[in-house]
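Supplementary Text 2. Reproducibility record for the structural model of the 271-residue chain.

All settings were left at their defaults, and a single model was retained for analysis rather than an ensemble. We include the record here because the model underlies the residue-level annotations in Supplementary Table 4.
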Amino acid sequence: MQIKTYIIDAFTKEAFKGNPAGVCLLEEPLPINQMQAIATELNLSETAFLVPVAQAVATFSIWYFTPTVEIAFCGHATLASAKLVLEKLALEQVTFITHHNLVLQAVKEAEAILMQFPLFDYQPQPVLPALFEALGLPASEHLYFSDALQLLILEVPDKETLQQLTPNFAQLLNSTEIAKGLAVTTRSPDAEFDFYSRCFWPWVGINEDPVTGSAHSVLARFWSDRLQKTELHAFQLSSRGGYLHLTIKDAHTLEVRSQAQMVLEGVLYLA
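Retained model, structure tokens:
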């Protein structure tokens, strides 16, 4: 069996920046364990698997896997998948239906891709001393939690604090049982962006994710509340880096604009 397989760098104008995702274009679904094995083999932060939906124009079922587990929603793998089908199949728009029945849409827009993401809420989270110890930071009340994403959000005072973070990932993994991820964020002092972030996911096998689209589904609301803006420019301060232009359309919908670059096209062989 041969599977068309791609590596696409998402949330970037340049190859080898942003967040690389694997995308496998299938004719029919594979068993879950086989998709997991492929994602483990590719060893990217996420691999997406696409299957056309019968009798539905430009609609695909989509599954997301890290090297160790299946996840419900991945922003950068969605952008990578949109780049693939819009470009390779010469489509103007595409709809993805996730394995967990989330409907995601993307359209071609000049040099960018415009995606419709859900917008998630958050609430204050009591201090988790072990978490702050793992981060090497003093305990702070600026800790929040998004139940929909199982994501902790920590606001730090400045860009320098964010850049200098060097988590102890073994400690971080054991610091809480409620989270699958941690987004650390700060207001930007720079005119180009409204806020910065870094995202850590040791609970799903990814120490630091280069650019995390799903986290911005709650970070957009978080910073909109603080800055009283519905249009935001974000940059994730990983070593690869990546940008997102965010627009809150209503209480439940977030528009995300960015770019992606295809860097590898090939065939994966299954015995």
